[in-house]
Amino acid sequence: MTGWCAPPPGWPGPTGTDTDVGKTIVTAAIAAAAQAAGLHVAVVKPGQTGTAEGGPTDIDQVTRLANPHTARTLASYPEPLAPLAAAKVAGLAALELYEVVDAIRAEAGKHDLVLVEGAGGLLVPMGVRPSGEAWTLADLATTLGVQTIVVARAGLGTLNHTALTLEALERRGVPAKVVLGAWPAEPALVHWANLTELLPHLVGALPDGAGGMEPGVFRRSAPGWLTPALYGVLDDWRVWAEEVS
């Protein structure tokens, strides 16, 4: 999850409508905006998968772009699978729900804001409870009582995926808002139509390619991509639309 930011005891946690929707870059942007506003920020990634492929991890990317005060991964697994499946395949210990909760709460005691980045979508199996039952990001959100950011695509198909995720969160009593993970440089009709439909839920939109920016440029730019709910300065979507069109 990457979340709708609030100081503890409300930890934000971003989740996505799917994998590769921009959760990591959105997490970095929220962290950068919050730090620019003077907050001490921690970013926690409960489960990182796909480490056998090499390359930077999600926490590596967040650190490069936003340089939060604390950035940590609780468990890493070689295969690019859901964390629980990756743990089983590798023969490694699965993430235990209440150990993750305790780790996040410990960081909350030392920071103004804790961002918890999920893996894949809301109902991806993350690990196990003490009973052996699987838990998901939705379970983590309800256990922590967090506000949650849903990171969504801008293009075709996003309305259904986003609505399903928001409905699942609402049924669990989890407040949620939406950030578009990558707004195209040349938006088409479908992008503008989706923006209009999502506007009541929207608290941010990142430009496509934001993750490739030089870190200093990224940190200076991040507040302009997010509304004040996420420590940004974006307060007029009409002005934003005029600037990006």
Describe the fold and architecture.
Helix content is 37%, strand content 22%. By secondary structure, it is α/β, with parallel strands linked by helices. The strands form three sheets. It has a four-stranded parallel β-sheet with strand order 1-8-9-10, with helices on both faces. It has a three-stranded parallel β-sheet with strand order 3-2-5, sandwiched between helices. α2 (58-66) links the parallel β2 (41-49) and β3. α1 packs parallel to α2. The longest helix is centred in the first third of the chain and has 14 residues, at 23-36. The protein is globular. Mean pLDDT is 92; it is low at 1-10.
Quick recap:
This protein is of the alpha/beta class. It has helices at 23-36, 58-66, 83-90, 97-108, 137-144, 158-171, 189-198, 215-221, 237-244, and strands at residues 13-16, 41-49, 70-77, 95-96, 113-116, 125-128, 134-136, 148-152, 176-183, 202-207. It has nine helices and ten strands.
Question: Which key phrases capture this entry?
Answer:
245 residues, alpha/beta, 3-stranded parallel sheet, 9 helices, 10 strands, 37% helix, 22% strand, disordered N terminus
Which segments are poorly predicted (pLDDT under 50) over 5 or more consecutive residues? 1-10
Largest sheet: 4 strands, parallel
The count of strands amounts to 10
Secondary-structure element sequence?
Answer: EHEHEHEHEEEHEHEHEHH
Alpha carbon gyration radius? 17 Å
Shape: globular
- N→C terminal distance: 30 Å
Helical stretch tally: 9
Helix content: 25-40%
What number is the mean pLDDT?
92
Structural class label: alpha/beta
Can you list the strand order of the major beta sheet? 1-8-9-10
Which band does the percent of strand residues land in? Answer: 15-25%
